[in-house]
Amino acid sequence: MTATITEPRVAEAAVQPSSSPAEPLIAMRAVSKSYGSGVTRTDVLHDIDLEIREGEFLAVVGFSGSGKTTFAQLLAGLVEPDRGLITMRGKPISGPSPDRGLVFQNYSLLPWLTVRANIALSVNRVFRNWSRGERRDHVERFIEMVGLSHAAHRRPHELSGGMRQRTSLARTLAMKPDVLLLDEPLSALDALTRGQLQEEILKIWEEERQTCVMITNDVDEAILVADRIVPLNPGPNASLGPIFDVGLPRPRVRTELNHQEEFKSLRNAVTKYLVDVRQAARDKQAAGSDAPAIRLPDIRPQSLKLPRKAIMNSTI
Ligand SMILES: Nc1ncnc2c1ncn2[C@@H]1O[C@H](COP(=O)(O)OP(=O)(O)OP(=O)(O)O)[C@@H](O)[C@H]1O
């Protein structure tokens, strides 16, 4: 039996970004970002409009180099838009804040501190008015949450990549940010560890229900975790594509999803969208290119294959 691919439910909000009735937690309005100037200028993001809802899990998917990290850094307040406005609860985002916790692709742990001390450093900074005991219990809770109790005394060089990323995740989660920003947090990991951590992130999110934005280049990962998926079109001047709603029931289990028609149809739709939009960008680039068109010479290829007789003669 062949699987029927149904059209994805593309949210109206994608077409009319301001149609959401509730006040969004974060709003991006006509946001553009470039780096450099003159001939070295790189136009990365163009006219980004997006509303992020309180408590949702949003995934932003895009190809390498499309501007995903720039997108995450704008939300984190680490870079400023050149044009447009980003607000959180109606107030402009003007810099980094513990309200928005960012987990990077490269764990950025302090190498001379243990897992416990790396997490405690952030907790002590954010929760200064808590008692020492409260802070210690809080740190232990998050170490346990990411399954690192047995390795809490180890330093980063004594950890595997997955364990470092767990530490980094626990450190950010322990700061209790209102928004968790995950910038390709699993892309440096092997497939098995990646799958395991995807499920752990999902479990934590289901318990905590904080707003979460995951930036990824993996469509399957996006479908597993997200309520909504928004494609980032290829750059330069990347804009956002239509929003895909993920209606799959939770809790979701990766191994079971693979057999579900809705999962397969959504994966096809998002992948097709991204591949088509990349091809269109390439075609447009080729059409506008100043490079001289390659003209093929008007000749017929000649067969260099020797007649069978000639081969036999040459081998005798
Ligand atoms: N600080 C910077 N200065 C100049 N150019 C930059 C800077 N940061 C990023 N870029 C350029 O902006 C573009 C988008 O980069 P970005 O890292 O946001 O993309 P990405 O989608 O996260 O890529 P990848 O998936 O490969 O990590 C690239 O062309 C990159 O070279």
TrEMBL record:
NCBIfam families: ntrCD. The lineage of its organism: Bacteria, Pseudomonadati, Planctomycetota, Planctomycetia, Pirellulales. Its EC number is 3.6.3.-. InterPro entries: AAA+_ATPase, ABC_transporter-like_ATP-bd, ABC_transporter_ATP-bind, NO3_transporter_ATP-bd-like, P-loop_NTPase. It is found in: Cell membrane. Keywords: ATP-binding, Cell membrane, Hydrolase, Membrane, Nucleotide-binding, Transport. This is Bicarbonate transport ATP-binding protein CmpC. The keyword Metal-binding does not apply. Residues 26-259 form the ABC transporter domain. It is an enzyme of class 3 (hydrolase). It is a peripheral membrane protein. One of its GO terms (molecular function) is nitrate transmembrane transporter activity. Its main location: membrane. Pfam families: ABC_tran. One of its GO terms (cellular component) is plasma membrane.
